[in-house]
Write a structure and sequence with these properties.
Length: 288
């Protein structure tokens, strides 16, 4: 895995930048795997059963029931070279940064797959909405701490003009003191070669929920040096994990599309209003 000609200074790398640069400095795949497992032990990464997370060479995996394998063995199959290595590396880094949330997602996957299997006789074995939503969160989610109702409402309405142009000045506070946290590992992979239509799926967490989760841990919110968020990564992970553990129905957890290159400061061309004239990317709902 050669280091790409990318400084990884873009804001969307913020949450994993330190770990990413450290692991990319290791030339051999085995050394990278050893480092990931050393960090998993130090950070006490566990699955929902309480088993220690271990990253294993995918060659040592049966190739069947990926999520069930993690649930039963605590082992995360990881491609060390070739196609898929970036995807799996980003997955591993999110396990290190948000182990509680990843464990809850794994639990949701396994639970939903059992429900799908029980209904396979009448549903032809198709994946149900819970598994689809869990996959979307796992792969494409961007976490938004909702401290600005004006921006949040514009996002929910897909009012791109208001979100990105009329209220442009509000983004500075959102990004630098509250933060947008990229969670989906497939989203990170796409950031290696971003394109205008690249879209994240936003999961909104309320400050009230965050405050309650932090207080439940007997902690106070504090600035995290790596992410620049009011909540530390550990606290943010606890908040997200709680939200996922309370999730029982695909319809009760809403996700909102966000064309990420439209975020002020995330692409040099979006300082020009004409950037947002592309209706193939910045589309409005049919009923608005």
């Amino acid at each position: 895995m050669a280091l790409l000609p990318n400084s990884f200074e873009h804001p969307w790398w913020q949450a994993i930048r330190s770990d990413l640069l450290t692991v990319l400095a290791l030339d051999k795949p085995e050394a990278r795997l050893d480092w990931l497992n050393e960090q998993a032990r130090e950070r006490a990464c566990l699955n929902s059963r309480g088993l220690s997370i271990e990253f294993i060479d995918q060659a040592h995996w049966s190739g069947k029931a990926y999520e069930a394998w993690i649930d039963q063995h605590g082992q995360v199959p990881t491609r060390l070279s070739g196609k898929g290595q970036w995807h799996d590396l980003f997955n591993a880094l999110i396990w290190l940064r948000c182990p509680l949330s990843k464990a809850q997602l794994n639990r949701a996957h396994v639970k939903a797959s059992r429900i799908d299997a029980a209904g396979s006789a009448t549903q032809s074995g198709r994946r149900g909405p819970m598994r689809d939503k869990a996959t979307l969160i796992d792969e494409q989610a961007l976490i938004w701490l909702d401290h600005d109702p004006v921006l949040r409402e514009a996002l929910q309405r897909r009012d791109w003009s208001k979100l990105f142009l009329e209220e442009r000045d509000r983004w500075s506070a959102l990004q630098h003191t509250r933060g947008l946290f990229v969670f989906g590992h497939a989203l990170y992979e796409k950031f290696l070669a971003p394109y205008k239509a690249l879209t994240a799926h936003v999961l909104i967490l309320s400050p009230t929920t965050a405050s309650s989760a932090v207080k439940a841990q007997g902690k106070t919110a504090r600035l995290d040096a790596q992410t620049g968020c009011d909540l530390s990564m550990h606290e943010l992970d606890a908040v997200l994990a709680q939200r996922l553990s309370d999730w029982t129905d695909a319809q009760t957890l809403r996700l909102y599309p966000l064309p990420v290159l439209g975020v002020p400061g995330w692409h040099q061309d979006n300082a020009c209003p004409a950037f947002y004239d592309d209706r193939h990317v910045f589309r409005r709902p049919a009923n608005i």
